[in-house]
Every structure is written in C-alpha cells, then in structure tokens.
Amino acid sequence: MNVALPDTGWQQLLDWQRHEVMLAFVYTRSLGGLMQTGHCRITSLEPEKAVLETAGSKLMIVLLGARFEAGAQIFFTLDLTGNFSVDGVTIHFANHDSLFLSNVSLPAEARLP
Fold first, then answer.
1. Which residue has the higher pLDDT, 8 or 53?
2. Cα dihedral 39, 104, 33, 66 sign
3. Per-residue model confidence (pLDDT) at position 6
C-alpha cells in the first residue's frame, strides 16, 4: 500500500518513538461525551497505524485518513478562569475524534494544589 506520509508532526512522532519518550495524551470524541487523559509511549509507528503503550495496556490506532497538526493546544485552568498552552502533536482521525500527544510538563497553574 502506498501511503503519503504527513509532513506536519510526523517527524516529531517518529522522534518520540525512537527515543521512547513518555508522553501525556488527551483523547476527545468529536461528538463529545468522552475525554480520556493519561500517559503513553509510542511503541510502533507506521503510516497506516500506531501502537501506544499505556499503563498496563496497548492501544492500536488507525492512521489512515488522519491529519497531523504540530503546535500548541489551549487548555483551561482547573477553576476555568484562565488558560495555558501546551506544545505537542494533534492527530485528527478520519472519524473526527482527536488525540493530542505532548512531552511537555504542565505549568503550575494547571496542577492541583
């Protein structure tokens, strides 16, 4: 199968996989109702699929039809009175769900007291 590799964010994902970097992730459903967060490592990365190893499990994600976007995402503080940016890579899946991956530590205002 001939699949064109994405240019934005792909190299960052490859670098994280190669160096076995522990990443934070946020998975969101396009229609709402689910937001999952956690930590993972990318154990396999191919144009068609990737495997993420999380705490005690592995997750295979299908990358066919996905778009990649490198850059900061905006998150709100716990009290919803402010926001902060976190650099990373967002994968927009064909079903319109998205997965944001980052190796950046959260700023102090984003943490529980």
1. 53
2. negative
3. 52
Tokens standing for 30? Answer: 């396009």
* 62 alpha-carbon distance from chain centroid: 13
Q: Is 9 within 8 Å of 69 (Cβ atoms)?
A: yes
Q: Are 106 and 93 in contact (CB under 8 A)?
A: no
The model's pTM: 0.84
CB contact at 8 A, 100 and 111 = no
Q: Do the Cβ atoms of 2 and 63 come closer than 8 Å? A: no
For 1-113, where are the alpha helices, taking DSSP H only?
A: 10-18
The CA distance from 82 to 106, in Å, is: 14
Rounded-to-integer distance, Cα 72 and Cα 88, Å: 6
Higher-pLDDT residue of 35 and 50 is 50
